[in-house]
Amino acid sequence: MSVIKISMKYVVLTIVVIIGAVYYQHIITKSSNNIDVLKKRVFSLSDLSTYDGVQQEKLYLAVLGNVFDVTVGSQHYRKGSSYHYFIGKDGTRALVTGNFKDESNEKDHVLQLSCNEILTILDWRKTYKQKYTYVGVLAGRYYDEKGADTSYMTELKQKVAVCRSEKEAAKLQDQLFPPCNMAWSEEDGSKVWCTKSSGGIVRDWVGVPRQMFTPGQDKPLCVCASLDKINSSQLKEYKHCSKTASECFVKDNNN
Q1: Is residue 107 over pLDDT 60?
Q2: With the CA atoms of 221, 227, 233 and 234 taken in that order, what torsion angle do they form, in degrees rounded to the nearest 10?
Q3: 216: alpha, beta or left, given left = phi > 0 and alpha = psi -120 to 50?
């Protein structure tokens, strides 16, 4: 009889443990889902516009469709402050244009911006992620009503990839042909010259100034070329300048 009682105790204990485990898993799952909902909360334009410090106590803004709570920086974003323009909307373009009066439907349109401007905006978004609380996404240009990427966002990501690739290529170009040092004075006019650190590129050679012609650029750039690369088809000598001189005085019509 005692054996039966002990067995029943183990059965009951086992059932309790199983029920407890199931309940615990339910709580964890529910908590996890709540976190996901918070991270993926989708705001409508009208919802976001209420987070202006008046209708809603908090201050929200969007950058590239990502919504951030910037309430802790209220000194910068409350009404009457420098960046209040951004509150309650996605005014991404103004981060690089400085047009804080733009209330058009294009105020979050960035595809026509230059690569440098787009990469600057990405730096801004990174700063917001580091300093403030990310609270969700804005349904519209970048995300749909379910929080999924729109075709516009897909196109932007493709352009960003191209921009980053071009930036890396430019870095390699600068290593090969670093920018010249340049100066101008009334007495001597324009002066270009090369050193072992001109253009901010530290190296073990000096080089000679040359005009570099790049497709899509209206004017040539002044670069420093090592003597073994001065015959490149992209390069042209400056007039009245010695072929091996490390500095030259040039005129505007040097082409």
Answers
A1: yes
A2: -10
A3: left
Kindly tell me the number of DSSP H helices and DSSP E strands found in the chain: 6, 10
Model pTM above 0.85 = no
Is residue 88 within 8 Å of residue 47, measured between CB atoms? no
Q: How far apart are CA 118 and CA 134, in angstroms?
A: 20
pLDDT at residue 202, rounded to an integer: 94
Q: How far apart are alpha carbons 158 and 76 in whole angstroms?
A: 33
Q: How far apart are CA 109 and CA 75, in angstroms?
A: 27
Predicted pLDDT at 215: 79
What is the number of residues in the chain?
Answer: 255
* pLDDT band, residue 252 (cuts 50/70/90): low
Q: Listing from the earlier edge strand, what are the strands of the sheet with 221-225? A: 221-225, 208-212, 235-236
Q: What mean pLDDT is reported for the chain?
A: 85
d(CA 245, CA 155): 47
Q: How far apart are CA 176 and CA 229, in angstroms?
A: 9
The pLDDT value recorded for residue 35 is: 31
Residue given tokens 């960046």 in the structure block: 83
- Residues 100/89, Cβ–Cβ less than 8 Å: no
Predicted local confidence at residue 253, as pLDDT: 56
Question: Can you read off the two tokens belonging to residue 180?
Answer: 């010249």
User: Which of 2 and 136 is assigned the larger pLDDT?
Assistant: 136
57-90 in b/e form (b: 16+ CB < 10 A) is ebbbbbbbbbbbbbbebeeebbeeeebbbbbbbb
- Using an 8 Å Cβ cutoff, are 153 and 199 in contact? no
